[in-house]
Design brief:
alpha+beta, 5-stranded antiparallel beta sheet, 4-stranded antiparallel beta sheet, 10 helices, globular
Length: 252
């Protein structure tokens, strides 16, 4: 459970950023689906819902996914399906349930960089960029590796190009947290392979023309937690990568 002393619905990103950085315990609200599970005293809760960040926009050369876009919007977007196939549908369809996905946001899923984030794994398989209000625009892989700092995620920027892509995950039960996640994309013969829930946060594990599942697995570190051991994750990782590669190659 969390408590809030003040609530702010800013009319601009500058107002939101100034409020965020005014005190250590001021916090941006996303869908609050993970925030509500913890115990936290929030000074000022900053609601971004009035800033128009809840849209998936075709800009011509790119596709922009606003920070307040829900996971359900990712799942049902025809624009994303046309460019990246079932990548995003497959990535989010196993997350809890439809009611949850209607509320959880892309910004909360990505900015939190949770180890179990299916969304981050999917995005890392594409040459995506993250637009931050203060820092500016950085690649998704650079953002994933950055230390946490106070900033506001505005949107995710994706290239508007057709990608063959696949998302694979291992869950012991439907809607459970993943034991391991993997995403692969290919465009013009260049593959990108991302792996998440190791249980560390997802990373871009490979980018190049000749992906080898075993070599990619050998380059990664795995750890144990209540869901699976490091050894188990290491054994299933090449299986998920091979499945994703086979699906991508069948779509080319």
């Amino acid at each position: 459970m969390y408590t809030i002393r003040q609530f702010l619905c800013p009319s601009s990103l500058e107002e939101a950023y100034q409020a965020l950085t005014a005190a250590r315990n001021n916090t941006v609200l996303g869908g609050c689906m993970w925030l509500r599970l913890g115990r936290r005293a929030i000074g000022t809760a900053i609601d971004l819902s009035a800033l128009g960040l809840d849209r998936i926009t075709d800009t011509g050369d790119t596709i922009e996914i606003g920070a307040m876009v829900s996971l359900r919007q990712l799942e049902t977007s025809e624009l994303l399906y046309q460019q990246y196939g079932t990548l995003f549908r497959d990535a989010v369809s196993g997350i809890v349930g439809t009611q949850f996905r209607n509320t959880a946001t892309v910004g909360g899923s990505v900015f939190g960089r949770f180890g179990f984030s299916d969304v981050l794994t999917a995005l890392l398989a594409l040459p995506a960029q993250v637009k931050l209000y203060h820092r500016g625009t950085v690649s998704i892989e650079e953002f994933a590796a950055m230390p946490y700092e106070k900033d506001i995620l505005e949107c995710i920027i994706l290239p508007k190009q057709a990608y063959a892509a696949s998302y694979q995950h291992m869950r012991f039960q439907a809607t459970d947290f993943p034991v391991l996640t993997c995403a692969v994309s290919c465009q013009d013969g260049v593959y990108r392979v991302s792996v998440g829930a190791r249980p560390q946060k997802a990373c871009l594990a490979y980018s190049g023309q000749t992906p080898d599942a075993k070599a990619i697995t050998d380059s990664l570190n795995f750890s144990s937690n209540m869901r699976a051991s490091a050894d188990y994750r290491r054994k299933i990782c090449p299986v998920l990568i091979r499945r994703a590669l086979e699906e991508v190659q069948s779509c080319k």
